[in-house]
Specification:
Elements: H1 12-22, E1 31-34, H2 41-47, E2 55-60, H3 63-72, E3 80-85, H4 93-96, E4 105-109, H5 116-121, H6 138-142, H7 150-161, E5 168-174, H8 175-187, E6 192-200, H9 202-206, E7 212-219, E8 227-231, E9 241-246, E10 249-251, H10 254-260, E11 272-273, H11 280-283, E12 284-289, E13 292-295, E14 300-301, E15 308-312, H12 314-319, E16 326-329, H13 342-345, H14 347-355, H15 357-361, E17 387-392, E18 400-403, E19 412-413, E20 417-422, H16 425-435, H17 438-446, H18 458-462, H19 466-472, H20 475-488, H21 494-509
Parallel strand pairs: 1-2, 1-4, 2-3, 4-5, 6-8, 15-19
Antiparallel strand pairs: 5-7, 6-7, 8-9, 9-10, 11-20, 12-13, 12-16, 13-14, 15-16, 17-18, 17-20
Helix pairs in contact: 1-2, 7-8, 10-17, 16-20, 16-21, 20-21
């Protein structure tokens, strides 16, 4: 159960590697504080150093871990050791840490790798007081952006409450936490500098499938810096890249970003996210034969055809499979639209949805609260555009695709995809050529964190200045790109091929 709560005890071999990394070049800290010490593996490693700290203080909430850690150090003589059993969230560290020694302070450890909402759902009471930590407003807070890793909360608490101690803080955490902390520190102008991210193999050490690192920084700097060198491992001497804040945004590769930063701006287009329904077993259908669909419950679905639309997902877009054999039920044409009218306009659909109302009642997201039955999100006039340019949000490499109608029906995308609606095939081809140009892809890569759960986001896409991009790329390059797009696109009809060829001719003539 402790692993489920994000409690990963740090193996002694990893502790040794971390301490070796930290004390390189003769660095020494007279004092060390561990905010969540677990069984005490970090403290054991510190005491085993040739020159151990003069004083170590620690906090641990779990009774079993607390007893284990306390018993390890009963015979410690050269180093003063003091451990408190408490929640780190309940303490004011400015008052709770009483130091006997003076000197440099190192904060080290491995806080829980779990979010506040996950801990709450698992029944843990080792939680901070509920708070909108980042000051989010409206829909952002409602849709999950106010959820945060416990480690993020601990990081912020350490920086703020230990500011006058001028500590070096080095914690194991997810790389996403390190990035969030760097951006938060910039937004709040926290005084940090000398940040570094050293990647670790979380699968090897913790059997966790997540990108993780040792994140280290100094607090209280006369010259704050919101950049972090990224090292491939704990022993590397040269960083492989640098992340940082440029133009008020966090970029994945500072050097690469500077080469294409002129594209950074505000898109004149509005990028949309695909359909969100959270009821895939009922709403998503597989094509069986002409006019016959089956849901994920293996039931043949007999509903009015005009409420079923072709459906593409991220994998389809990434691999260019635009001839989808999937369908999705669309119950509304705009968010919040009344659905009770389906009883008259689509009685078979209403009966089908009502039969499976339990699947809709199980939807936990607050966005469905007080909405008409069987409501969906990510729906509007833009969803019904015949042509679209779309991209997967889940894949590491950006690939934009032209999405054209299937059987004369506009194609819907699921909520792992982003798209812009187009009025013509010519517009769609032009936009796909612009977005797939090397300069645009390089810009996207420079601000994309490929280890994120969703590498491509709406914010990234909205930051592409289309006008600047269009002015930058020569016409002949656009035509070459259009020909390449035509060759690699898997076209599903002779009519679509002719439309592409017509669009290419227009681009060439313009």
């Amino acid at each position: 159960m402790k692993a489920e709560l994000g409690d990963f005890q740090t193996p002694p071999a990893l502790v040794t590697a971390i301490l070796k990394c930290l004390i390189i070049n003769g660095k020494y800290w007279e004092r060390v504080f561990e905010p969540t010490c677990g069984k005490g593996n970090f403290i054991s490693g510190l005491l085993a150093l040739d020159k151990p700290p003069k004083e170590i203080q620690a906090i641990e909430f779990d009774t079993e871990h607390f007893k284990t850690a306390r018993n390890l150090f009963e015979n410690t003589s050269s180093t003063r050791f003091f451990i408190q059993q408490a929640k780190i969230f309940d303490l004011d560290l400015r008052q709770s840490l009483k130091w006997n020694q003076k000197g440099n302070l190192l904060v080290i450890g491995n806080p829980p790798w779990i979010t506040n909402s996950q801990l709450g759902s698992l029944g843990s009471n080792n939680l901070p007081v509920k708070t909108n930590l980042k000051g989010l407003k409206g829909i952002e807070a409602l849709t999950g952006k106010s959820n945060f890793d416990i480690t993020e909360y601990i990081w912020i608490k350490l920086i703020k409450e230990l500011f006058f101690e001028k500590p070096t803080i080095a914690l194991l955490c997810k790389t996403s936490v390190a990035r969030n902390l760097l951006k938060f520190a910039f937004d709040k102008q926290l005084q940090i500098s000398n940040a570094s991210i050293r990647l670790i193999d979380a699968k090897k050490w913790f059997k966790a499938s997540v990108s993780a690192c040792l994140f280290c920084l100094d607090v209280d700097s006369d010259k704050p810096s919101y950049k972090a060198d990224v090292y491939p491992n704990l022993s590397a001497t040269e960083p492989e890249s640098t992340i940082g804040i440029i133009d008020n945004k966090l970029v994945a590769d500072v050097k690469a970003y500077k080469k294409s930063a002129f594209l950074n701006g505000s898109s004149s287009l509005i990028w949309r996210q695909g359909l969100k329904h959270d009821a895939a077993s009922v709403m998503e259908l597989n094509y069986v034969s002409e006019g016959v669909f089956q849901n994920k419950l293996k039931e043949i679905v007999n509903v009015e055809d005009n409420y079923i639309y072709p459906l593409l997902k991220s994998t389809d877009l990434f691999h260019g499979k635009i001839d989808s054999r999937r369908g999705v039920i669309v119950t509304q044409k705009k968010i919040g639209q009344d659905t009770y009218s389906l009883q008259q306009t689509a009685p078979r659909l209403w009966q089908y949805l009502t039969t499976h109302s339990d699947k809709f009642n199980q939807r936990k997201s607050s966005i469905y609260k007080n909405k008409p039955p069987f409501s969906i999100f990510g729906i509007g006039d833009y969803s019904f555009c015949i042509y679209k340019v779309a991209i997967s949000g889940l894949h590491k490499q950006p690939r934009f695709r032209v999405v054209y109608p299937i059987n004369s029906r506009p194609v819907m995308l699921d909520d792992t995809c982003y798209f812009v609606g187009c009025h013509s095939i010519e517009e769609a081809i032009l936009l796909s050529c612009l977005f797939n140009s090397e300069i645009c892809l390089n810009f996207i890569r420079s601000i994309t964190f490929i280890d994120a759960k969703r590498p491509i986001t709406k914010n990234i896409l909205q930051s592409i200045n289309i006008k600047t991009l269009l002015d930058y790329i020569p016409q002949n390059q656009l035509i070459n790109q259009a020909n390449y797009e035509y060759r690699r696109t898997k076209l599903n009809s002779e009519k679509t091929k002719l439309e592409w060829l017509s669009a290419l001719e227009l681009l060439s003539a313009s």
